[in-house]
Amino acid sequence: MQISTSQKLSLLSAIFVASLIAANLLGVKITTLLGISVSVGIFAYPITFLITDSIEEVFGKKPATHLMYSALIAQILVFIIIVIAIKLPSSERYEFNDEYVIIFSSSLRIIIASIIAFFLSQTHDIWAFNFWKKQTNGKFLWLRNNLSTIASQFLDTTIFMFIAFYNISPKFDSAFIFSLIIPYLLFKVAFALIDTPLVYALVWWLKKDKHD
What we know:
- By secondary structure, the protein is mainly alpha-helical.
- It has one domain (5-207): Arp2/3 complex 21 kDa subunit ARPC3 (Orthogonal Bundle), CATH 1.10.1760.
- Helices cover 75% and strands 4% of the residues.
- The protein has helices spanning 5-26, 46-59, 61-87, 97-135, 141-165, 174-194, 196-207; strands at 30-33, 36-39.
- The protein has a two-stranded antiparallel ribbon with strand order 1-2.
- Helix 2 (46-59) crosses helix 5 (141-165) and helix 3 (61-87) packs antiparallel against helix 4 (97-135).
- The longest helix is centred in the middle third of the chain and has 39 residues, at 97-135.
- The protein is globular, with a radius of gyration of 19 Å.
């Protein structure tokens, strides 16, 4: 069965939004990778840059920008729903309201940080990818993808870390936040390099039967 271009874009849009929301809601949990403590959201969020770069490569800046704004609206909607869910009184039969409020209240600051960092970093990523595409005359996709993604990931990580964690305790001062940013960024750079073949595969898939 052939998949039309509109169906491909709808599928990628769904994956994009799902990855973004998953990173926000699950990001409060910290795991350890190679001896470094990182949020589990680090596995979902890089997918968003992979998708926007691939869409922009095939269809241009406008569809990628539309996707970014759609995801931004989805984030804001989720934030509003979480606030309402926390504020609503729980039924007497529900025994875990305190735990529910603790988990999702923690997510609220992370979602606010994510909304701001997402908008600024994705706006930069779309602009940077388009800029490097013009500079390279549409060649060297691997270079354009990594240059735009790595710079945008640095922007995203720095903004997110400061809004989400700065001063949540005396320990979380500027120096400590930057000590967290560096390993996070290294992981994100590694993910960006690793997903380069996926960008080529996704671009090929999008171009295949593009005029369906």
